[in-house]
Design a protein that fits this description.
Layout: E1 7-12, E2 15-21, E3 25-30, E4 35-41, E5 69-70, E6 94-102, E7 105-112, E8 124-132, E9 136-144, E10 150-156, E11 159-161, E12 168-171, E13 176-179, E14 185-188, E15 199-203, E16 209-214, E17 217-224, E18 228-233, H1 235-239, E19 253-266, E20 271-278
Antiparallel strand pairs: 1-2, 2-3, 3-4, 5-10, 6-7, 7-8, 8-9, 9-20, 10-19, 11-19, 12-16, 13-14, 13-15, 15-18, 16-17, 17-20, 18-19
Length: about 280
């Protein structure tokens, strides 16, 4: 493993963390799950991402916060109850394949120990490419190495740091969504989009840009390769049942997830790219 001058590795409890600091930003990426945990642009020193104060770094349980990678399914498996929600790669150790410095920032390429696992029969190679510059770019590449097509779902399950969920608005979504808190009933996207209860929604609208407004602060989110945007906040009652969240921490986070929830087919020798860019 070759590291550039802007990269180094530390250990947090039982998890190795890749630190990236260049002239543009500071970033932390867990090798457990290849999970970006922090992105702090130097022009304003504001972390765009949220990690729970009770997040568990034992190398076994998924880390609560940052950008977890859900693959090759999102949520519960469609027909197997004995496999983990959101797939199996977020609890794997990922290896650093390449680090590169350019005029625009630092690029790191990761691969999981294996892309195969119970509940998925495709012959795939998964690659994550993270670019740390003025913006944070996260690309999830799913390549079909086999001779037959396969279908999968996935998400970049991003937790964004906000000042107060009660003062937050989300701009850029329209159309209908499936409400998972109401038995997947279909509703129209509210305008303005604000929050006052538990949110677990799959928006079938797929805008290229969304904006989180909280107070006088804006976070821009750009997406491609997706068919859905998932919005999630557990609110108070659910937060109290989660061992890795403080009761009031729902106030300072909002998940805006670039996702494939309707099934993405990848032809033999082809590659699908899911990308989220954060400004």
């Amino acid at each position: 493993m070759h590291l550039t001058d802007s990269t180094s590795i530390i250990t947090r409890d039982k998890v190795q963390i890749l630190l990236v600091e260049n002239s543009f930003a500071k970033t932390e990426i867990s090798l457990f799950g290849a999970q970006v945990l922090s992105f702090i642009p130097k022009h304003d020193n504001r972390d765009r991402l949220w990690v729970s104060q009770r997040a568990i770094f034992d190398g076994k349980k998924p880390i609560r916060g940052g950008i977890p990678i859900c693959w090759p399914w999102f949520g519960a498996h469609s027909n197997q109850a004995d496999v983990a929600a959101h797939g199996y790669v977020r609890t794997q150790i990922w290896k650093i394949q390449l680090t590169e410095e350019t005029a625009s920032g630092t690029t790191i390429t990761f691969m999981p120990k294996t892309s195969a696992g119970q509940g998925f029969t495709g012959k795939a190679q998964l690659t994550l490419i993270v670019h740390v510059g003025k913006q944070l770019s996260v690309q999830l590449h799913t390549s079909n190495l086999g001779e037959t097509s396969f279908s999968f779902n996935c998400a970049l399950h991003s937790y964004f740091a906000i000042s107060d969920i009660n003062e937050t608005k989300l701009l850029g979504l329209s159309g209908q969504y499936l409400d998972k808190t109401r038995h997947n009933k279909v509703f129209e996207t509210p305008h303005p989009y604000q929050f006052n209860e538990e949110i677990d929604r799959v928006h079938l609208h797929k805008p290229e840009r969304l904006t989180i407004n909280h107070g006088h602060i804006k976070t821009q989110i750009f997406s491609s390769g997706h068919d859905s945007v998932v919005i999630w906040n557990p609110w108070l009652d659910k937060s109290t049942t989660m061992e890795d969240m403080l009761e009031q921490s729902y106030l300072t986070m909002l998940c805006v997830e670039t996702a494939v929830t309707q099934g993405q087919i990848v032809l033999p020798r082809a590659t699908h790219i899911l990308e989220q860019t954060i400004d």
